[in-house]
Amino acid sequence: MTVPANRVYLYASTDNDYIKCLAAADVAGIPYSQCIGDYQEAWRICADPTNLLVDVGGAALYALYYNPCNWPNPAGQAGGHTPFVTYPDGHGVATVKANTFVNAGGYTALDSLTLAIMLSYYAIHGTFPHGYGGLPRQEIPQHVCVSGASPRLSVPNIQAPAPTPHPVTVNQPSVGVYASISTLAEAERALQLKWPGIGVTTALGTPQSPYTSVLPSHPDSLVAQALERVNSSAWWLSFWTVSWPSSGVTFHQAGYDAGQYAATQIDALPGTRRPDYVILDPEGYNQPAQTAQQFHDFVNGFAAGVTSINSTLKSGFYCNQSQYATYQLASVNLPAFVAIAPITGNHPMVSGHNITGYIAYYASCPSTSEINQVKSWGALYNAVQFRDSGVDCGPA
């Protein structure tokens, strides 16, 4: 369970701590407008059971817990106490509860900044940002009116960064890189090398519903952040490895459960960009489809699950050439992404109106001739994979 970014707020009661709010919001993917410097507004947000409030710095912690400065508040309560408590210290929080806030008050300014980044990010993504270790020690609330604290900060009118460009319209064969992405630097490298698109497997199969689970490194989140940081218009393929249904569960229902899970995770990604295609990769645990109807039900169930959460996302499916032919997947009214190997001197043995891309392996550096070979197959959204699944070189 995670909290939507539009329901996570950060509160500071000093100017220096407000700057930390903005930094944490930038990392977590929270709009700057949800950095709060008004005590009464923070009070109302904390009392609302649909919001999660993160205090930033000791002054905000003391104010929300004790109101030692006797500031006016919506409840008209005198200073010395409030109805609010903190979530237990020492771990991330990804749930909401009325009158309960997250303690991002540290014993040093750096600790407060680190806590604000880690805890706000965890609330939205269910994990701490890549590269961060354990949480710094959190302050204990004190009945102290901090010098310089204000019930209403003079908040600057900070403009949000320009939205990341939408991906370019692909109207002729394009070849991106398919890679194992586990750090932000790896995602940024792919874009800096001018690959026109990037494909990642972001989840692996599980034996029970929802039959898929996001990898600990959160590859989709890394790609979303990289696209914004590099200001890239590259397209993006998000692959979800999904296990077949467990005993007693229909293929359509298993696909639907996985699609809902995938779309929910994608909705919580930072920034404004979302994958161009959310792609089911059917493999993993349990008994695979034995008939074309079962395979079709699985794929269509996944697409229906995605659409039930976010109708703007486009679903597709991944398969090899044998599956495409055996299970009559040309008749599925969804984009197909077909695996093919080797690249050099090869050409697809299957064809169909729904083939939107080929995922080809293995490429080598320099990759120009292999890219041209893949382009010659005629699909629009293609990707090549290097033998080590890395971003070994650019497309030129």
CATH class wording of the largest domain: Alpha Beta
Give the CA-based shape: elongated
- The CATH topology of the largest domain is TIM Barrel
Helix fraction bin: 25-40%
Q: What gap, in angstroms, lies between the N and C termini?
A: 42 Å
Query: How large a portion of the residues is in β-strands, by DSSP E?
Result: 15-25%
Major β-sheet annotation: 8 strands, parallel, barrel
Descriptive terms for the model:
19% strand; eight-stranded parallel beta barrel; alpha/beta; TIM Barrel
Describe the structure.
- Helix content is 30%, strand content 19%.
- By secondary structure, the protein is α/β, with parallel strands linked by helices.
- It has 2 domains: 5-125, no CATH class; 174-386, TIM Barrel (Alpha-Beta Barrel), CATH 3.20.20.
- The strands form 2 sheets. It has an 8-stranded parallel beta barrel with strand order 6-7-9-10-11-12-13-14, surrounded by 5 helices.
- Helix 1 runs parallel beside helix 4 (109-125) and helix 7 (251-267) packs parallel to helix 8 (292-309).
- The longest helix has 18 residues, at 292-309.
